[in-house]
């Protein structure tokens, strides 16, 4: 209900007196409970800035926070004002809405923040006034698109070109082949294939071009020059055959690997591929007949479509094509207006020049050519008006041509620029995504480490009551203490325990492969991954709760480990040393292999590994939740706690770790 | 000069373009007279009401009530006056099902006592004062004024028919029982005239009207209905 309605209601009711003498039935009684309007000034304190307004102003919209009794929750009786701990700048707009009945959208504020404020105050965004509605919608749509892109890039984009992570090793050959085709950076073979096809496309196009250049005239033909294609027919034929063979092979492979063959056959790129190779085959099977040679020549023209195959290799070309597609309506408008203008001016010129003898303007279609050449300011000069009227109309024609063509161009340009920048942004985001994910993972691991440490502290206090370990003075805030207590309560409730990653993966290896082989597999699999990981997993797996000294050192180093882990992880990512799984495992483990010597020697290793099965045997779960889809059913890995699942991409990566490790371990044990 | 048809057209076009060009540069001023008037219309009308004390003396509202009224009024109409379009818009917000424009027109005329095409705050306040705080006589007077469209002191059958039709228009189409074409309003007018027109001369004068209303109990009772609107 608009503000105006509330103000005018008393007037409308008063005007109802006019119906009284006409009423055929007795009128109902007026509603009671409308006390005398006593207007008072309310003070609303928003983060220190005081706003004052009439109570009536706020009462205009009874279904919002400020207009209903909900604001009483925020009333501070000591100061007699309503206190809101929100943004005072944005509150200004909210209050203006009550005052004027129109909600305006601030141009320099983030649209998301504004939305949140509106949601808090119970105002529906649809109430935004017409003056600001367009912009609000545009900005919101832009934001939503950007967030959708973000999510897509995070998830790796199903089948999208942005996904760089490797497929799990067990995927079928067909899927890997398609992956290699779509994203050449995944493997070296794909890259090689990519460059080879690119090279052959270039060769083919150049051959087509060179074929027609006149080579030096052959002696027997006199002084007549002939094109190179006729002089060296065999060479060109061989080159063409080779190119077509490669293209055919590529096309067939793509067809085989495509997840949906129907869709692939209908896609633009496959059509271009088909058109590029068909002329050759048609030429092969059609006999060299004089009648059909004309058609044969036409077919050769289609060979030039091979140049469009480059669009797989060049992003700029793809952007151009996409722009043209999205500007289809503007181009259509341009074409239509041009056609109209051409017809009009051609008619006028024809009739203007009709009287002249020996004129070029023989018919209106003949005048079309003149009009087009003039409007696009080409001015070949093969057709020129000679009468005065013709000249006047001709000059008007050229002036209007400039205008008509110039009009839709800015629209097309702005579209192109928008799409181009979007693409740039997507590329940048992909590069930053890895770093972001790494940081998020590190933060999560920090929480887990802190919790495990808290538990050890409690364990310490439980076991040896009198002795207080000196190093547990890492003062945690009240928030952390309460958070850890909460996690502890959850553990007790479900009678499962949180562990860290390495212990869990060890447990996996131990449980599914049996006790005997576990030792060898875990050791050898660690050897496969790398010494750093091995050292760290040894450190974390050994020395459980038996050796106080090692514990103390571990406590001290856990802080260092977190920061180091992040550094190492970033280095790992930057250097593209290993695919996802490995880096994620390493994130949690302290890679302090340089400074920290192995605390445990081999003896301890055996003892430690044998002692592993006991605690984690019943508690095969992880502190981090894993999406069930990625768990390939190997070993018990169902998480009982699902804390946060914000960066699913990271989790998927990291959860691939244990299963990947397991795969390797299985392979090694079978040797 | 022997100009042919097309050549003449061409020359004409050139001359027209030339004149337009000169106009652009301001060397020729065509249509000078219209521009000044346009400028005048652009300026918005502003109106400031009488002093608060004066209004308090003239109407039956207290100072506080007048303050509240004026604040709401000024918020809706910053220029200080309500023109008929705005009036119709406001009224149509209260009766979304039907078409309230005709009735709003009559109402506007009833409020616009000085007939200058706009309702100022004083008109507004005076009207409300009568309707909400006036005596029964004054209210009935006001109602008579509303029905008497041409303000000649008599309500004829045609005027009453117009008013009735306007009121029934506000109901809209979705009513129960279904409103047929004109019959209900005609019937209503007949009833009204039977009741009010004492000397059966086809028109209702102000005295007849007041007298008949005072005799009707229903009407008298319902006069008290709208007293505590403000």
TrEMBL record, chain A:
Q: What are the recorded GO MF terms, alphabetically?
A: A-type (transient outward) potassium channel activity
Show the segment(s) annotated as Disordered: 612-659
Example of a GO biological process term: protein homooligomerization
Subcellular location, in the record's words?
Answer: Membrane
> What topology does the record note for this protein and the membrane?
Multi-pass membrane protein
- The organism's place on the tree of life at top rank: Eukaryota
**Transmembrane portions of the chain:** 234-253, 265-286, 331-352, 364-380, 392-413
Return the Low complexity bias intervals. Answer: 637-657
Is the keyword Transcription assigned to this protein?
Answer: no
Which key words tag this protein in UniProt? Ion channel, Ion transport, Membrane, Potassium, Potassium channel, Potassium transport, Signal, Transmembrane, Transmembrane helix, Transport, Voltage-gated channel
- Give the UniProt entry's GO cellular component terms: dendritic spine; neuronal cell body; postsynaptic membrane; voltage-gated potassium channel complex
Q: InterPro entries, alphabetically?
A: BTB/POZ_dom, Ion_trans_dom, K_chnl_volt-dep_Kv, K_chnl_volt-dep_Kv4, K_chnl_volt-dep_Kv4.1, K_chnl_volt-dep_Kv4_C, Shal-type_N, SKP1/BTB/POZ_sf
Signal sequence extent: 1-16
Biased segments, Basic and acidic residues type: 621-635
Q: Where is the BTB domain?
A: 40-139
Q: Which family does it belong to?
A: Belongs to the potassium channel family. D (Shal) (TC 1.A.1.2) subfamily. Kv4.1/KCND1 sub-subfamily.
Q: Can you state the subunit structure given in the record? A: Component of heteromultimeric potassium channels. Identified in potassium channel complexes containing KCND1, KCND2, KCND3, KCNIP1, KCNIP2, KCNIP3, KCNIP4, DPP6 and DPP10.
Record-given protein name: A-type voltage-gated potassium channel KCND1
Source organism per entry reads Phascolarctos cinereus (Koala)
Q: List the gene name.
A: KCND1
UniProtKB/TrEMBL annotation, chain B:
In terms of SMART domains, this protein maps to:
EFh
The EF-hand domain is annotated at 99-134, 135-170, 184-219
Q: Which GO terms describe its molecular function?
A: calcium ion binding; potassium channel activity; potassium channel regulator activity
Keywords, alphabetical: Calcium, Cell membrane, Cytoplasm, Ion channel, Ion transport, Membrane, Metal-binding, Peroxisome, Phosphoprotein, Potassium, Potassium channel, Potassium transport, Repeat, Transport, Voltage-gated channel
The answer to whether keyword Calcium applies is yes
- Return the GO cellular component terms, semicolon-separated: peroxisome; voltage-gated potassium channel complex
Entry-linked SUPFAM superfamilies: EF-hand
- Could you tell me which InterPro entries the record lists for this protein? EF-hand-dom_pair, EF_Hand_1_Ca_BS, EF_hand_dom, Recoverin
**What CDD domains does the record point to?**
EFh (cd00051)
GO terms for biological process, alphabetical: regulation of potassium ion transmembrane transport
Top-rank taxon:
Eukaryota
Stated membrane topology is: Peripheral membrane protein
Localisation per UniProt entry: Cell membrane; Cytoplasm; Peroxisome
Describe the family membership recorded for this protein in Swiss-Prot or TrEMBL: Belongs to the recoverin family.
* Name this protein carries in UniProt: Kv channel-interacting protein 4
Q: Which gene encodes it?
A: KCNIP4
């Amino acid at each position: 209900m608009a503000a105006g309605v509330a103000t005018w209601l008393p007037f409308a009711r008063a005007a109802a007196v006019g119906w009284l003498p006409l009423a055929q039935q007795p009128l109902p009684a007026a509603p009671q409970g409308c006390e005398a309007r006593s207007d008072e000034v309310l003070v609303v304190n928003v983060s220190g800035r005081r706003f004052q307004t009439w109570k009536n102003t706020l009462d205009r919209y009874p279904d919002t926070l400020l207009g209903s009794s909900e604001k009483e929750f925020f009333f501070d009786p000591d100061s007699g004002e309503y206190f809101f701990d929100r943004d005072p700048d944005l509150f200004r707009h909210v209050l203006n809405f009550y005052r004027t009945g129109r909600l305006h959208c601030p141009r320099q504020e983030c649209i998301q923040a504004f939305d949140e404020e509106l949601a808090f105050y119970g105002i529906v965004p649809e109430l935004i006034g017409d003056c600001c509605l367009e912009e609000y919608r545009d900005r919101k749509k832009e934001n939503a698109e950007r967030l959708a892109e973000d999510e897509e890039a995070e998830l790796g984009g199903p089948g999208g070109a942005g996904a760089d992570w490797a497929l799990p090793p067990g995927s079928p050959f067909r899927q890997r082949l398609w992956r290699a085709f779509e994203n050449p950076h995944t493997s070296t073979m794909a890259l090689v294939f990519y460059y080879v096809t690119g090279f052959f496309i270039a060769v083919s196009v150049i051959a087509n071009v060179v074929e027609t250049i006149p080579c030096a005239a052959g002696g027997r033909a006199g002084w007549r020059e002939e094109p190179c294609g006729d002089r060296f027919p065999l060479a060109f034929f061989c080159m063409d055959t080779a190119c077509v063979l490669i293209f055919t092979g590529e096309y067939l492979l793509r067809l085989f690997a495509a997840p949906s063959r129907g869709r692939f056959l209908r896609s633009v790129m496959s059509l271009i591929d088909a058109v590029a190779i068909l002329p050759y085959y048609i030429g092969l099977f059609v006999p060299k007949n004089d009648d059909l040679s004309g058609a044969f020549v036409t077919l050769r023209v289609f060979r030039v479509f091979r140049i469009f195959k480059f669009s797989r290799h060049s992003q700029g070309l793809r952007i151009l094509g996409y722009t043209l597609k999205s500007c289809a309506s503007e181009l259509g408008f341009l074409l239509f207006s041009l056609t109209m203008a051409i017809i009009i001016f051609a008619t006028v010129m024809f009739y203007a020049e009709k009287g002249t003898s020996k004129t070029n303007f023989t018919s209106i279609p003949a005048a079309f050519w003149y009009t087009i050449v003039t409007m696009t300011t080409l001015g070949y000069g093969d057709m020129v008006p000679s009468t005065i009227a013709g000249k006047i109309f001709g000059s008007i024609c050229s002036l209007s041509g400039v205008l008509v063509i110039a009009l839709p161009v800015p629209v097309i340009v702005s579209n192109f620029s928008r799409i181009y920048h979007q693409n740039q942004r997507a590329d940048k985001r992909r590069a930053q995504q890895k770093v972001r994910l790494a940081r998020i993972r590190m933060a999560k691991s920090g929480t887990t480490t802190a919790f495990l440490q808290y538990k050890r502290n409690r364990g310490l206090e439980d076991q040896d009551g009198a002795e207080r370990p000196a190093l547990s003075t890492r003062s945690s805030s009240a928030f952390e203490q309460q958070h850890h207590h909460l996690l502890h309560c959850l553990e007790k409730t479900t009678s499962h325990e949180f562990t860290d990653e390495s212990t869990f993966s060890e447990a996996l290896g131990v449980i599914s492969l049996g006790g005997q082989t576990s030792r060898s597999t875990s050791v050898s699999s660690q050897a496969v991954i790398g010494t750093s990981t091995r050292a760290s997993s040894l450190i974390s797996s050994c020395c459980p709760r038996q050796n106080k000294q090692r514990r103390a050192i571990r406590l001290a180093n856990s802080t260092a480990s977190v920061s180091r882990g992040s550094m190492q992880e970033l280095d790992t990512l930057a250097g593209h040393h290993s695919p996802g799984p490995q880096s994620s495992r390493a994130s949690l483990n302290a890679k302090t292999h340089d400074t920290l010597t192995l605390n445990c020697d081999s003896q301890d290793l055996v003892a430690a590994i044998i002692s592993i099965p006991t605690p984690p045997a019943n508690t095969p779960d992880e502190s981090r939740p894993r999406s069930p889809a990625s768990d390939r059913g190997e070993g018990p890995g169902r998480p009982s706690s699902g804390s946060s699942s914000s960066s699913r991409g990271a989790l998927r990566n990291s959860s691939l770790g244990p299963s990947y490790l397991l795969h390797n371990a299985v392979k090694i044990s079978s040797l | 000069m022997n100009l042919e048809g097309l050549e003449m057209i061409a020359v004409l076009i050139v001359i027209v373009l030339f004149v337009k060009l000169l106009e652009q540069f301001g060397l020729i001023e065509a249509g000078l007279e219209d521009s000044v008037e346009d400028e005048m219309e652009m300026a918005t009308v502003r109106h400031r009401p009488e002093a608060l004390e004066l209004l308090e003396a003239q109407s039956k509202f207290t100072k506080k009530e007048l303050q509240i009224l004026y604040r709401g009024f000024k918020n809706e109409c910053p220029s200080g006056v309500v023109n008929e379009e705005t009036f119709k818009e406001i009224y149509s917000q209260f009766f979304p099902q039907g078409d309230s424009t005709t009735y709003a027109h009559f109402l506007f005329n009833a409020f616009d006592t000085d007939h200058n095409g706009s309702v100022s705050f004083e008109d507004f306040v005076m009207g409300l004062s009568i309707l909400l705080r006036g005596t029964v006589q004054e209210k009935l007077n006001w109602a008579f004024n509303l029905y008497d469209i041409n303000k000649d002191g008599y309500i004829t059958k045609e005027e009453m028919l117009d008013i009735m039709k306007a009121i029934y228009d506000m109901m809209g189409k979705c009513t129960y029982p279904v409103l047929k074409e004109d019959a209900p309003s005609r019937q209503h007018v007949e009833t009204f005239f039977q009741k009010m027109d004492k000397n059966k001369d086809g028109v209702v004068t102000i005295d007849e009207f007041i007298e008949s209303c005072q005799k009707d109990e229903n009407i008298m009772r319902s006069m008290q209905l709208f007293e505590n609107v403000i």
